Amino acid sequence: MGTLRRVTTLHVPFHQDERLSDRHLAVPAGPAETVEPALPDGTIWERLTALHDAVAQRVANDVRAGVVPTVVSGDCLVALGTVAGVQRAGIDAGIVWFDAHGDVHTLETTTSGYLGGLSLRLILGAHPDLVADPLGLRPLTPDRALLVDARDLDPAEAAYLSADGPARVSVDDLASPDRTREGADDLVLPDGPLVLHVDVDVVDAGELPGLLFPAPHGPSAAAVRKAVQRVLSTGRVVAVDVACPWHPAASDEDAAIRANLIANLLS
After folding, report:
1. In angstroms, rounded to a whole number, what is the distance separating the alpha carbons of residues 99 and 171?
2. Among residues 103, 149, 169, 257, which one has the fewest Cβ atoms lying within 10 Å of its Cβ?
């Protein structure tokens, strides 16, 4: 796994502000700590801020100690806490975002109202009063982000990405040995330290059943692993964030398959 050192997995058993059952998340074998703060009464954004603040503090502690934390949660919004934690540790990191979806909606453009669809856009500065400001998160500029795959885009997301959004590449592009070399300007990873975010739904839905938002015609788990390893091999990853938006596992066998998937992506 190159120079990446993972000492403790941080298990965040939440989808938005909802506490998930043990059947939802599949944490790889090995030492793990659960981040499970008591959430206050209030708006969804106040509750999310409390959750993400707890994640940020734990991530910051690991990063300061020279550890590369791996955060495993039930949705992509937890990535705000991961990025904020890296920043609290004094590191201004870019982000590489693997996802079947764009996650670049705003409250004005979302048609479903699903808040996870705003995750990356919030990190890039949308609606700062809702989470970023209370969390102390400094939004990233689009050139500090790379969106990988995003094969299932709504029209508003496609318009944003084509005009003002971060660069977007395919899994195969990122996995190719010559694609991230200096000089391939349209496919270069963001400069400097990186947060690696992987939504498991980037894997083809036919290979990974039970996803909340399945997207067909995606890359295989093997292809995603190759691309993830390409990012890890840079030695610049300071935190890993894994989102698992899926239904509860139907059996112990399904849970083991999920845990193995996460472990194999990062090993």
Report:
1. 10
2. 257
Contact 199, 262 (CB under 8 A): no
Between the alpha carbon of residue 236 and those of residues 147, 165, 186, 209, 256, the distances in Å are 17, 23, 19, 32, 30
Angstrom distance (rounded) from CA 194 to CA 27 = 22
DSSP 74: S
The per-residue DSSP string of 44-69 comes to: HHHHHHHHHHHHHHHHHHHHHTT---
pLDDT of residue 126: 98
Alpha carbon distance 168, 26 (integer Å):
28
- 11: phi then psi, degrees, rounded to nearest 5: -95, 115
- 157 in Cβ contact with 126 (< 8 Å): no
Cβ atoms 81, 59 nearer than 8 A = yes
Cβ atoms within 10 Å, residue 84: 25
When pLDDT is averaged across residues 6-13 and rounded to a whole number, the result is 82
Domains of the chain: 9-266 (3.40.800.10)
Host H or E run for residue 122: helix 119-123
Cβ neighbours, 10 Å, residue 23: 16
pLDDT one-digit tens code per residue, 34-83: 999 999 999 999 999 999 999 999 999 999 999 999 999 999 999 999 99
Assess contact for 241 and 78: CB atoms under 8 A. yes
